[in-house]
Amino acid sequence: MTLASILACRGPWPISVDSLRGELESQFGLRPRQLEEELSTRPGDPGAGGAVVKLNGIPLAITVHAVPLPEDQWIYGPQPNLFWLEAKSALSAHKAHIRVLVLEKPKSRVELVDYTMALGLLTSAVCRAADAIGVLWCPSDNLLSATHFVGSNGNHFQKNILPMDIYVRLVVANSSNGVALATHGLRSYVGREVEFVPMKPTTISLENMIDRAFMIAETLFIGATETPGKLEPGDVVGPERLVVRLDDKGDLENGPVYRLLPPVTKAGPGLRPAS
Length: 275
Fold this sequence. Notes:
2 domains, seven-stranded antiparallel β-sheet, six-stranded mixed β-sheet, 15 strands, globular
Protein backbone atom coordinates (compact mmCIF):
# COMPACT_ATOMS: atom_id res chain seq x y z
CA MET A 1 0.00 0.00 0.00
CA THR A 2 1.26 3.46 -0.93
CA LEU A 3 0.49 6.16 1.61
CA ALA A 4 -0.11 9.00 -0.82
CA SER A 5 -2.74 11.34 -2.17
CA ILE A 6 -3.13 13.16 -5.50
CA LEU A 7 -4.91 16.50 -5.73
CA ALA A 8 -6.55 17.89 -8.87
CA CYS A 9 -5.99 21.66 -9.19
CA ARG A 10 -7.11 24.40 -11.52
CA GLY A 11 -3.50 25.47 -12.05
CA PRO A 12 0.02 25.07 -10.63
CA TRP A 13 0.37 26.07 -6.99
CA PRO A 14 3.43 28.09 -5.95
CA ILE A 15 4.29 25.92 -2.98
CA SER A 16 4.46 27.68 0.38
CA VAL A 17 5.23 25.87 3.61
CA ASP A 18 4.15 28.95 5.56
CA SER A 19 0.70 28.78 3.97
CA LEU A 20 0.48 25.10 4.98
CA ARG A 21 1.37 26.01 8.56
CA GLY A 22 -1.45 28.56 8.48
CA GLU A 23 -3.93 25.99 7.19
CA LEU A 24 -2.89 23.36 9.74
CA GLU A 25 -3.39 25.92 12.50
CA SER A 26 -6.75 27.19 11.26
CA GLN A 27 -8.17 23.75 10.42
CA PHE A 28 -6.72 21.63 13.20
CA GLY A 29 -5.18 23.92 15.80
CA LEU A 30 -1.64 22.70 15.10
CA ARG A 31 1.21 24.98 16.07
CA PRO A 32 3.57 26.21 13.31
CA ARG A 33 6.54 24.30 14.74
CA GLN A 34 4.69 21.00 14.27
CA LEU A 35 5.38 21.33 10.53
CA GLU A 36 9.12 21.46 9.90
CA GLU A 37 10.50 22.47 6.50
CA GLU A 38 13.33 20.17 5.41
CA LEU A 39 13.66 21.27 1.78
CA SER A 40 11.57 23.23 -0.71
CA THR A 41 11.87 24.82 -4.12
CA ARG A 42 11.73 28.56 -4.53
CA PRO A 43 10.13 30.77 -7.19
CA GLY A 44 12.19 30.55 -10.36
CA ASP A 45 13.61 27.10 -9.61
CA PRO A 46 13.41 24.79 -12.66
CA GLY A 47 11.06 21.80 -12.77
CA ALA A 48 8.07 20.92 -10.60
CA GLY A 49 7.73 22.71 -7.31
CA GLY A 50 8.18 20.60 -4.25
CA ALA A 51 8.94 20.36 -0.58
CA VAL A 52 10.01 17.82 2.01
CA VAL A 53 8.47 18.44 5.41
CA LYS A 54 8.01 16.72 8.75
CA LEU A 55 4.58 16.81 10.34
CA ASN A 56 4.84 15.80 13.99
CA GLY A 57 8.14 14.15 13.07
CA ILE A 58 6.71 12.16 10.13
CA PRO A 59 8.50 12.88 6.81
CA LEU A 60 6.32 13.70 3.80
CA ALA A 61 6.98 15.03 0.31
CA ILE A 62 4.85 17.40 -1.75
CA THR A 63 5.35 17.81 -5.50
CA VAL A 64 3.51 20.18 -7.83
CA HIS A 65 3.04 19.17 -11.49
CA ALA A 66 1.85 21.70 -14.08
CA VAL A 67 -0.01 19.10 -16.15
CA PRO A 68 -3.39 17.38 -15.77
CA LEU A 69 -3.69 13.63 -15.30
CA PRO A 70 -5.71 11.37 -17.64
CA GLU A 71 -9.20 10.51 -16.47
CA ASP A 72 -8.36 6.82 -16.01
CA GLN A 73 -5.78 7.72 -13.37
CA TRP A 74 -8.45 9.39 -11.25
CA ILE A 75 -11.49 7.19 -11.62
CA TYR A 76 -11.25 3.47 -10.81
CA GLY A 77 -13.83 0.85 -11.63
CA PRO A 78 -17.14 1.01 -13.51
CA GLN A 79 -19.02 3.17 -11.01
CA PRO A 80 -18.58 6.72 -9.67
CA ASN A 81 -17.83 7.36 -6.05
CA LEU A 82 -21.05 7.43 -4.02
CA PHE A 83 -19.98 10.72 -2.42
CA TRP A 84 -18.90 12.53 -5.60
CA LEU A 85 -21.15 11.60 -8.47
CA GLU A 86 -20.08 14.70 -10.42
CA ALA A 87 -16.36 13.80 -10.29
CA LYS A 88 -15.93 13.22 -14.02
CA SER A 89 -17.29 16.61 -15.06
CA ALA A 90 -15.62 18.46 -12.17
CA LEU A 91 -12.19 17.00 -12.97
CA SER A 92 -12.39 18.23 -16.56
CA ALA A 93 -11.45 21.68 -15.20
CA HIS A 94 -8.17 20.57 -13.66
CA LYS A 95 -4.94 21.78 -15.31
CA ALA A 96 -2.37 20.62 -12.73
CA HIS A 97 -1.96 18.10 -9.94
CA ILE A 98 -0.16 17.79 -6.63
CA ARG A 99 1.16 14.62 -5.02
CA VAL A 100 1.56 14.20 -1.27
CA LEU A 101 3.55 11.16 -0.11
CA VAL A 102 4.69 9.66 3.18
CA LEU A 103 8.43 9.01 2.81
CA GLU A 104 8.91 6.28 5.44
CA LYS A 105 7.46 2.80 5.45
CA PRO A 106 5.59 2.19 8.72
CA LYS A 107 7.18 -0.47 10.92
CA SER A 108 4.06 -1.29 12.97
CA ARG A 109 0.31 -0.90 12.90
CA VAL A 110 0.61 2.03 15.29
CA GLU A 111 2.90 3.81 12.83
CA LEU A 112 0.63 2.89 9.91
CA VAL A 113 -2.32 4.61 11.57
CA ASP A 114 -0.23 7.60 12.69
CA TYR A 115 1.21 8.03 9.18
CA THR A 116 -2.26 7.73 7.64
CA MET A 117 -3.59 10.49 9.88
CA ALA A 118 -0.59 12.72 9.17
CA LEU A 119 -1.13 12.27 5.42
CA GLY A 120 -4.77 13.25 5.86
CA LEU A 121 -3.91 16.40 7.79
CA LEU A 122 -1.29 17.58 5.31
CA THR A 123 -3.49 16.75 2.32
CA SER A 124 -6.30 18.83 3.82
CA ALA A 125 -3.91 21.74 4.31
CA VAL A 126 -2.72 21.48 0.69
CA CYS A 127 -6.35 21.26 -0.49
CA ARG A 128 -7.18 24.63 0.99
CA ALA A 129 -3.86 26.33 0.23
CA ALA A 130 -3.92 25.23 -3.42
CA ASP A 131 -7.71 25.58 -3.91
CA ALA A 132 -7.93 21.96 -5.08
CA ILE A 133 -10.93 20.51 -6.92
CA GLY A 134 -10.67 16.94 -5.69
CA VAL A 135 -8.48 14.36 -3.98
CA LEU A 136 -7.60 10.78 -4.85
CA TRP A 137 -6.80 8.97 -1.60
CA CYS A 138 -4.45 6.32 -2.95
CA PRO A 139 -4.62 3.70 -0.13
CA SER A 140 -8.27 3.03 -1.03
CA ASP A 141 -8.51 4.49 -4.57
CA ASN A 142 -11.08 6.85 -3.05
CA LEU A 143 -11.89 9.91 -5.15
CA LEU A 144 -13.57 12.74 -3.23
CA SER A 145 -14.26 16.41 -3.74
CA ALA A 146 -11.85 18.70 -1.92
CA THR A 147 -14.76 20.11 0.08
CA HIS A 148 -15.77 16.65 1.28
CA PHE A 149 -12.18 15.70 2.08
CA VAL A 150 -11.47 18.83 4.13
CA GLY A 151 -14.83 18.60 5.91
CA SER A 152 -14.33 14.97 6.90
CA ASN A 153 -10.88 15.66 8.32
CA GLY A 154 -12.30 18.68 10.13
CA ASN A 155 -14.92 16.47 11.78
CA HIS A 156 -12.11 14.23 12.99
CA PHE A 157 -10.42 17.15 14.73
CA GLN A 158 -13.56 18.93 15.96
CA LYS A 159 -15.85 16.00 16.83
CA ASN A 160 -13.42 13.07 17.16
CA ILE A 161 -15.14 11.24 14.28
CA LEU A 162 -12.68 9.09 12.33
CA PRO A 163 -12.74 9.97 8.60
CA MET A 164 -13.62 6.46 7.51
CA ASP A 165 -15.33 7.91 4.41
CA ILE A 166 -11.79 8.87 3.33
CA TYR A 167 -9.91 5.78 4.47
CA VAL A 168 -12.48 3.40 2.95
CA ARG A 169 -14.12 3.41 -0.46
CA LEU A 170 -17.52 1.73 -0.81
CA VAL A 171 -18.24 -0.52 -3.78
CA VAL A 172 -21.89 -1.27 -4.62
CA ALA A 173 -23.33 -3.92 -6.94
CA ASN A 174 -26.95 -4.61 -7.92
CA SER A 175 -28.35 -8.05 -8.67
CA SER A 176 -31.70 -9.80 -8.81
CA ASN A 177 -31.17 -10.76 -5.17
CA GLY A 178 -30.74 -7.17 -4.04
CA VAL A 179 -27.88 -4.77 -3.37
CA ALA A 180 -24.40 -5.89 -2.29
CA LEU A 181 -21.79 -3.60 -0.79
CA ALA A 182 -18.12 -3.91 0.16
CA THR A 183 -15.42 -1.74 1.65
CA HIS A 184 -12.14 -1.17 -0.18
CA GLY A 185 -9.02 -0.05 1.67
CA LEU A 186 -9.80 -1.43 5.14
CA ARG A 187 -7.76 -4.64 4.79
CA SER A 188 -4.40 -2.92 5.19
CA TYR A 189 -5.47 -1.80 8.68
CA VAL A 190 -7.57 -4.70 10.00
CA GLY A 191 -6.71 -7.69 7.77
CA ARG A 192 -10.13 -7.95 6.08
CA GLU A 193 -12.67 -5.95 4.15
CA VAL A 194 -16.36 -5.84 5.09
CA GLU A 195 -18.81 -7.23 2.53
CA PHE A 196 -22.60 -7.38 2.62
CA VAL A 197 -24.19 -10.15 0.54
CA PRO A 198 -26.98 -9.00 -1.79
CA MET A 199 -30.03 -8.04 0.29
CA LYS A 200 -33.44 -6.60 -0.48
CA PRO A 201 -34.51 -3.21 0.91
CA THR A 202 -36.97 -5.07 3.13
CA THR A 203 -33.95 -6.49 4.99
CA ILE A 204 -31.78 -3.37 4.94
CA SER A 205 -31.88 -0.20 2.84
CA LEU A 206 -28.80 0.96 0.93
CA GLU A 207 -28.61 4.03 3.20
CA ASN A 208 -28.53 1.84 6.32
CA MET A 209 -26.10 -0.56 4.68
CA ILE A 210 -23.71 2.37 4.11
CA ASP A 211 -24.13 3.46 7.74
CA ARG A 212 -23.45 -0.07 9.01
CA ALA A 213 -20.38 -0.41 6.76
CA PHE A 214 -18.81 2.74 8.19
CA MET A 215 -19.83 1.82 11.74
CA ILE A 216 -18.16 -1.59 11.42
CA ALA A 217 -15.09 -0.11 9.72
CA GLU A 218 -14.63 2.44 12.50
CA THR A 219 -15.10 -0.21 15.20
CA LEU A 220 -12.46 -2.39 13.57
CA PHE A 221 -10.06 0.49 12.89
CA ILE A 222 -10.20 1.86 16.49
CA GLY A 223 -7.09 4.03 16.08
CA ALA A 224 -3.38 3.70 16.69
CA THR A 225 -3.28 0.45 18.65
CA GLU A 226 -1.09 -2.61 18.20
CA THR A 227 -4.04 -4.77 17.16
CA PRO A 228 -7.28 -3.82 15.41
CA GLY A 229 -10.77 -4.65 16.56
CA LYS A 230 -12.32 -7.81 15.18
CA LEU A 231 -15.59 -9.62 14.63
CA GLU A 232 -16.21 -13.28 15.34
CA PRO A 233 -18.25 -15.75 13.28
CA GLY A 234 -21.88 -15.60 14.39
CA ASP A 235 -21.67 -12.06 15.78
CA VAL A 236 -24.86 -10.07 15.21
CA VAL A 237 -24.60 -6.51 13.88
CA GLY A 238 -27.07 -3.62 13.96
CA PRO A 239 -30.82 -3.49 14.54
CA GLU A 240 -31.23 -5.57 11.37
CA ARG A 241 -29.38 -8.37 13.23
CA LEU A 242 -27.04 -9.15 10.35
CA VAL A 243 -24.87 -12.20 10.96
CA VAL A 244 -21.08 -12.24 10.55
CA ARG A 245 -19.21 -14.93 8.63
CA LEU A 246 -15.46 -15.00 7.92
CA ASP A 247 -14.58 -15.84 4.31
CA ASP A 248 -11.18 -16.10 2.64
CA LYS A 249 -12.46 -14.28 -0.43
CA GLY A 250 -15.31 -11.93 -1.14
CA ASP A 251 -17.47 -11.58 -4.22
CA LEU A 252 -16.65 -7.88 -4.64
CA GLU A 253 -13.24 -7.90 -2.94
CA ASN A 254 -10.47 -10.37 -3.84
CA GLY A 255 -9.25 -11.19 -0.35
CA PRO A 256 -10.41 -12.01 3.19
CA VAL A 257 -13.71 -10.44 4.22
CA TYR A 258 -16.09 -10.16 7.11
CA ARG A 259 -19.24 -11.19 5.26
CA LEU A 260 -22.55 -9.83 6.53
CA LEU A 261 -25.53 -12.15 6.02
CA PRO A 262 -29.27 -11.58 6.47
CA PRO A 263 -30.65 -12.28 9.94
CA VAL A 264 -31.35 -15.86 10.95
CA THR A 265 -35.02 -16.82 11.18
CA LYS A 266 -36.67 -19.98 12.35
CA ALA A 267 -37.79 -22.34 9.59
CA GLY A 268 -39.25 -25.55 10.93
CA PRO A 269 -36.81 -27.58 13.08
CA GLY A 270 -33.71 -25.75 11.89
CA LEU A 271 -32.44 -22.23 11.32
CA ARG A 272 -31.71 -20.47 8.06
CA PRO A 273 -30.77 -16.94 6.99
CA ALA A 274 -33.76 -14.79 6.10
CA SER A 275 -34.07 -13.93 2.42
